[in-house]
Design goal:
The protein is 43% helix and 22% strand. It is an alpha+beta fold. The structure holds the ligand C[C@H](O)[C@H](O)[C@H]1CNC2=NC(N)=NC(=O)C2=N1. Residues 56-58, 74-76 line the site of the ligand C[C@H](O)[C@H](O)[C@H]1CNC2=NC(N)=NC(=O)C2=N1. Keywords: Lyase. This is Putative pterin-4-alpha-carbinolamine dehydratase. Pfam families: Pterin_4a (PF01329).
């Protein structure tokens, strides 16, 4: 499985089992995060941005006050790939 090949339904199911809080919504890997304040939420986004930049993979996300809604997909491949799974795991680590 290449990092940029779209995951099959069964590969996606398997990956989701290990990925706390994430689901598939409208064909994208989706999770909502909630923090104790806007500053906590924005700090998280800043840490994720540095990781995203180093791996060349950027989230679609929206922040309102202390909440962040994230959708991950690989535009270059036209679907969900291991790059999305990888970034989702990183985001879970950074949200702890
Ligand atoms: C050239 C550049 O690395 C690519 O366009 C990267 C940038 N960030 C990206 N981010 C996401 N989420 N999907 C991509 O396919 C993607 N491609």
């Amino acid at each position: 499985m290449n990092a940029l090949s779209i995951l099959s339904a069964s590969e996606l199911d398997l990956a989701l089992q290990e990925l706390q809080g994430w689901s598939i919504e409208r064909g994208k890997l989706h999770r909502q995060f909630q923090f104790s304040s806007f500053v906590e939420a924005f700090g998280f986004m800043t840490r994720v941005a540095l990781v995203a930049e180093t791996i060349g993979h950027h989230p679609e996300w929206c922040n309102v006050y202390n909440r962040i809604s994230v959708d991950l997909t690989t535009h270059d491949a036209g679907g969900i790939t291991m790059n999305d799974i990888h970034l989702a795991h990183k985001m879970n680590e950074l949200a702890e």
